[in-house]
Amino acid sequence: MVQIDPDCYRISVFQIKDKVEHVASKSELARSGRGYALPKWDYVPTERLGIRIETQGYSFWASSWSDKPDHFLEDLLPQILQELELRHDRAQDQRIEEERRRLERRTRWQQARDNAIAQLTEAHRSDVLFAEINNWQQAAKIRDYVAALTVQVASYDDPIRVADTQRWIDWALAHAKHLDPFNRSLQLPNAPEASAAALAPYMGSWSPYGP
């Protein structure tokens, strides 16, 4: 194993075998007459060696080197070491690029989340506004109703009916007061909780849980 910073490469040294035509022995020839299949080739170990980078990855020079008639394996050691360095440099560049992409993606996700929070806040405040407008209109309608009912009550002769209607009027006025947003301090609503479920409709193609 060869390690360069975080990158680890598995190196194997192997013996090279020559492929030579098989010469059958007398016993093999005898067996061949009985249906025995003779091998066509033999693989004979030599004094030559090879080196192979077993770890998968993009190669620059090669992944395997061996003794050849025109050079020895030890003459290739500088190239083998440079191959490891080049692979390490490429892996380092890939890690840097992946980190850059990760940070860029997180930045874009954060921008999308900030925009989603702004949209969620606007939608929430819009809902509050229209709810208050509806309550204000309902309170006004109740008071108009009460005004008309008060005129009607004046024509009643039955004191029990008048008392019953007056209780209804009193409750209606109290309810209108409760509905009317003008009867309490008004201010800009706080932003709602930016939970993942709340943000999901505003995140577009992004996940509300993370980049």
Properties at a glance:
5 strands; 4 helices; 3-stranded antiparallel β-sheet; alpha+beta; 211 residues; two-stranded antiparallel ribbon
Describe the protein's architecture and organization.
- The chain has about 210 residues and is of the alpha+beta class.
- It has a domain of about 80 residues.
- Helices cover about 50% and strands about 15% of the residues.
- It contains four helices and five strands, in the order βββαββααα.
- The chain is rod-shaped and about 140 Å long.
- The share of residues in helices is 40-55%
- Give the number of helices: 4
Radius of gyration: 44 Å
Order of helices and strands: EEEHEEHHH
Strand order, biggest sheet?
3-4-5
- Between the first and last Cα atoms, what is the distance in angstroms? 36 Å
Secondary-structure map:
Layout: E1 2-4, E2 7-9, E3 11-21, H1 26-32, E4 41-53, E5 64-66, H2 77-153, H3 159-179, H4 196-199
Antiparallel strand pairs: 1-2, 3-4, 4-5
Helix pairs in contact: 2-3
In short:
It is built from four helices and five strands. By secondary structure, it is α+β, with helices and mostly antiparallel strands. The longest helix is centred in the middle third of the chain and has 77 residues.
